[in-house]
Amino acid sequence: YRGNIRTEMTRQETWDQDRYRDTDLILNRGNTEYRDRNDMRHDRQGNENKHEEFNDKPDSLFFNDGVRRIDFVLAYEDEDKKEYEKRHVFQRRKVKCFEDNLMKMGMELEATQSVLDEKLVFLKVHMPWDVLCTYAEVLHIKLPIQSNDMSARPSPWRFFSCITKHFYPDEKLISKESEFFTAPFEKNRQDLFCIKDKDHFFTPSMRSRMAYYILSRAPYEIRGNIKKFGITKLLDGGVYKAAYPIHDCRFNVKSQEPECPNERYLLYEEWAHPKSFYKMQPLDLIRHYYGEKIGIYFAWLGFYTRMLTWAAVVGIGCFIYGYYTRDTSTWSKEVCDPDIGGKIVMCPQCDTCQYWTLNSTCNTSKNLCIFDNFGTLVFAVFMSVWVTLFLEFWKRYQAELEYEWDTVEFLEQEEPPRPEYEAKCIHERKNPITGVKESVPYTACGRCVRVSIGMTTVIFWIMLILASVVAITVYRLAVFFTFSRELRYTNLTIAEPIKEYVTPQMATSVTASLISFVVIMILNTLYERVAIWITDFELPRTKTDYENSLTLKMFLFQFVNYYSSCFYIAFAKGKAVGYPGKPVYLLGKYRNEECDPGGCLIELTTQLAIIMGGKAIWNNIQEVLIPWLKNLIYRRCAHVTTEKVIPRWEQDYQLQPSSKLGLFYEYLEMVIQFGFVTLFVASFPLAPALALLNNIIEIRVDAWKLTTQFRRAVPEKAQHIGAWQPILQGITILAVVTNAMIIAFTSDMIPRLVYYWSFSVYPYGNNTENTMKGYINSSLSVFSTNDFQTVDDDYIHTPPNLTTCRYRDYRFPPGHPKQYEYNMFYWHVIAAKMAFIIVVEHIVYFTKFILAYIIPDVPYAVKEQIKREKYLTQVILHETNLKLVSKRLKATETETES
After folding, report:
1. How many Cβ atoms are within 10 Å of 508's Cβ, its own excluded?
2. Which residues form the Anoctamin transmembrane domain (predicted)?
3. CA distance 808 to 485
4. Three-class SS of residue 657?
5. How would you write 715-766 as a 3-class SS string?
6. What is the maximal distance between C-alpha atoms in the chain?
7. Per mean pLDDT, which range of 95-99, 114-118, 342-346, 817-821 is the poorest?
């Protein structure tokens, strides 16, 4: 192979190839039977020989000898099947160097040609026992030292086991794992660990994790002091087509191999299958098969979904209360009453609008009462307490998982650096902790420059979002103008039915919400690539640092992108509109839009429903339909038939590769949803119910695509949900403020309460009892039609007998010494709103503080088990050290006597 291409290489390339000539001596190291590629290919003619390589066992998880387990699989194209290009020469050299270095590091390799594609070759990787022990110690993997002898506390639900057992995975299929006390593995103290069978002591997920660690650090090119390494770079450069651990069987067919645990099949049957939607998740098996990082995500998602059940029940109750009281509400009845709302003529809401009667918004007023009622106030306070309980109980549950999954002492400083970071370490600095010189990729000044560039880029994109919000606001004003004008000139027999159901405000709100959703999706796609590029440029040290940095950038952008339009409607729209004789104009051209006479709350509800619903539908399409179509197209193009026996590693190659960012997008989707559920829940009590329904589907969709449509992800260790934890805490703190401000400034709750307790003092109150009668009249100010500064008769036609019109505000009437200035009722309402915000915030924050204090983050039983485990570890290590010292003393005494 080397002699055929040497004449076509430069002298430098020939020198590099000669450097690896001696590595041919280790091709048979450890009985790998790794032959020269040319000889190997000549021996594989016909399907019969191909089948012999894996003994016609499609679910075999071993080398051809049936003894050595496959820990990882690499796929690349056969060089002899390619047309000659210079870049192929470089690729051959990299592959040769990389594989030789893998074997130098102790890994055993075996190559197999593809059954479906002659150009494709699969390289199977196996890690012998000594290599496993070495890297288990390097990665601080905790393994069992003794059975857990502490009695578990009985479950409070044990009396209902005859009912609850139907909501758990079948114990006959998925048995409960044995509990052990564990300690970090040490190669020279193997006798301390419970090693019954070396072949099964390290789980397949552990073996795959260690194999990937070696693959990420094996060099593929060495020139002087420059060393390039890592499977990631080879994959990005197209040298290898894929690198992945293999599934243990097909997801829908149980393997007949005696050594196959069939964990993938069990996960599909008891977790991912739609028929199991009502069952609890088998978290231990998920963690065992996919690793702690994926396990902790599904544990968090399941816990969040269970907690949403309580919020959904209360929210639905609030919605039902509002629905059945909408017709009996005093203010909605006054709006719809022909003798009250029908006789109130409202001022035009734009420069081309006409006068209109208040009862034309009867349906809108009734719909508003569904969401804007006293039950919403109770629900907003409930949700403020709910988010605190959610976070505190999650911390407890997370602490239990940390102990059960042996991640209690998983420290970030033990996490190895990223290969991309190590490859660019060209500077030296003194470690402030160890005092030892270490290599770093940049100086302190260089890091500041990188971070500054990243922050500047993020700020630029956030400003771009705000610019899009302004553009949509201008669109709202222009469309409101257009709708109003078109309804003005439409034939009255056609316009009246339209006006009853489609008001200019509603039409503007719906179309603007749809456009806002489309803009959000487009900006998300563009910014995603920018955020990844910035994070790569910053060059974080560890993968945790990388994910945290990317998480912060993406969340800041998504926060502004998704929530900016909602914040505009809630706190900006209709707040600076002036009054009919002196309106406020945006950009000197468009008159600032006003809220419906009932307020902007119904528009905020519409915006939330469209964005939440559209986002959920779009994400499910992306997560389910796209991977399924890609796999279907690949199978069609590859002409996969049932007549061919396809080995396990090639079946997995046909699946979609797992994402480089892992579960980042899954977390981001759920955290954005959590923001919708908590930040604006005062305007949309059904948000928790919609989120609950979406999450029940989301769990099974994520499970289905993970087990059926994607290759097995590389197992990773994780102690908690990472940077998402402080983000959730920040959202919960902000949610208290936003909901209090929505009730105070967006809804009509506070003005109603002020009127209810003190309306008889004001000029529009003519009753002596505390009732809501006359509230609509008191909330509308009077304006003289003669005070319009400019009236264009082509657009605005004032009836001859109309001298005044009404508008939503609290101002003195015409003829008053302070006409059109704010009256005392306005200032009382403002004072009541500020008092409400301050009181509610302090009460809720104090309640949150008390709950966080009295609910410990770590359960008492878990603390006892952690202490017991540390004690046993210290005792065992101490006894071992004493034995070693005793042996050394005896050996010294023997030498002295001799």
Report:
1. 22
2. 286-869
3. 22
4. coil
5. CCCCCCCCCHHHHHHHHHHHHHHHHHHHHHHHCCHHHHHHHHHHHHHCCCCC
6. 130
7. 114-118
- The secondary structure of 396-451, three-state, reads HHHHHHHHHCCCCCCCHHHCCCCHHHHHCCCEEEECCCCCCEEEECCCHHHHHHHH
Taking the C-alpha atoms of residue 760 and residue 755, their distance in angstroms, rounded to an integer, is 8
Mean pLDDT of the chain: 78
Give the list of residues 6+ apart from residue 697 with CB closer than 8 angstroms, or none: 620
Q: Where are the alpha helices (DSSP H) in 230-359?
A: 231-236, 263-267, 283-290, 292-325, 330-336
Determine the Cα angle at 206 with ends 201 and 210, to 5°.
120
Domain boundaries, the chain: 2-141+185-246, 280-750
Per-residue pLDDT tens digits for 129-172: 999 999 998 888 888 887 777 666 666 666 666 777 777 787 78
CB 763 within 8 A of CB 705: no
Centroid of chain to Cα 763: 54
* Residue spans of beta strands (DSSP E) within 392-432: 427-430
Q: How many helices (H) and strands (E) does the chain have?
A: 31, 18
Q: Give the pLDDT confidence score for residue 47 in this predicted structure.
A: 38
Which neighbouring-strand residues pair with 783?
805
Provide the β-strand partners of residue 75: 122, 242
Mean pLDDT for 789-798 is 54
Give the H/E segment covering residue 183: strand 180-184
Q: Which amino acid is at 795?
A: Y
The span from the CA of 154 to the CA of 29, in Å, is 53
Q: Are 780 and 334 in contact (CB under 8 A)?
A: no
- Supply 253's token pair: 């067919």
CB 232 within 8 A of CB 74: no
Cβ atoms within 10 Å, residue 488: 14
Kind and range of the H or E run holding 113: strand 108-113
The total number of residues shown for the chain amounts to 898
Written as six digits, the tokens of 389 are 């309980």
More confident residue, 78 or 797: 78
- Residue 124 pLDDT level (bands cut at 50, 70, 90): very high
- Signed CA dihedral, 167, 173, 174, 180: sign only: positive
